[in-house]
Amino acid sequence: SGSSLSFESRPLPRVFVLEVTRRCNNRCSYCYTAWNAPDLGYDINKNEEMTADEIKDVVAKLQHEAPVESIALSGGEPLIRADLPEIVKAISAGGSDAVIITNGTLLSEERVAATVADSTYEITLLSHRPETHDRLTRHPGSWNAVVDGMANVHKAQGSFVAAFIATKLNSGDLQKTVELAIALGAEGLMYNRMNLGAYNMRYAD
Questions:
Q1: Mean of the pLDDT values across residues 16-31?
Q2: pLDDT at residue 44, as a whole number
């Protein structure tokens, strides 16, 4: 039956997510990354990451061996990488859709101009209230930067969806946050719950 397919006979995936950096300019309380959890004892240099050429080799291998429809670039915060436009162009040139999963704070006009032709964006917006968004990101001023970033993408005729991560602090803000995202040009909304694990377990309550 279809439910008992062997591993070898299952269809290959069409959607991939590559974590291209561990670096991030936010310190979100809901972040589940393992490398930020001190109890796990990871000995990780956050500045050690694959080069653009190494990532492009992985992308080319995926596109050659699997029916890749889209490759999302995550982190950390992928826009921290100065070479991200080069990576995005390689994904697009290979015939796949590139998606930049970003906290939105680094979407300057220059960064948008360098990536908008070859990618779409998934941008985190946690509340219509600046103080709630900034409390969750633990990055003062991040709400203002995200709103500016969304405006920059919209002005450049780019495409983005807003990502809402629901917690006890912001779950009641959903409707007005969706309205704000639509007003800023969002073409869709992702509603995610907080994924408990590793770093954010201390904030489980």
A1: 94
A2: 66
The two tokens of residue 78 are 């992928």
Tens digits of residue pLDDT in 130-181: 999 999 999 999 999 999 999 999 999 999 999 999 999 999 999 999 999 9
Provide φ and ψ at 151, rounded to 5°.
-60, -40
Residues 146 and 184: beta-carbon distance below 8 Å: no
The rounded percent of the chain whose pLDDT value lies above 90 is 79
Q: What is the largest CA-CA distance in the chain?
A: 54
Compute the distance between CA of residue 36 and CA of residue 26 in angstroms, rounded to an integer: 12
Give the C-alpha separation, 106 to 83, whole Å.
Answer: 14
Contact present, 72 and 44 (Cβ < 8 Å)? no
Helix (H) or strand (E) holding 161: strand 160-166
Q: Compute φ and ψ for 161, nearest 5 degrees.
A: -115, 150
- If DSSP codes are grouped into helix, strand and coil, which group holds residue 190? strand
Tokens of 198: 């590793």
Tell me the C-alpha distance between 182 and 53, whole Å. 37
Adjacent-strand bridge partners of 131: none
Parallel/antiparallel/unpaired status of strands 97-102 and 160-166? unpaired
Distance CA 128, CA 149 (A): 15
* Cα 17 → chain centroid: 9
Report phi then psi at 98, rounded to 5.
Answer: -105, 135
**Within 13 A of 180's CA, how many CA atoms are on the CB side?**
22
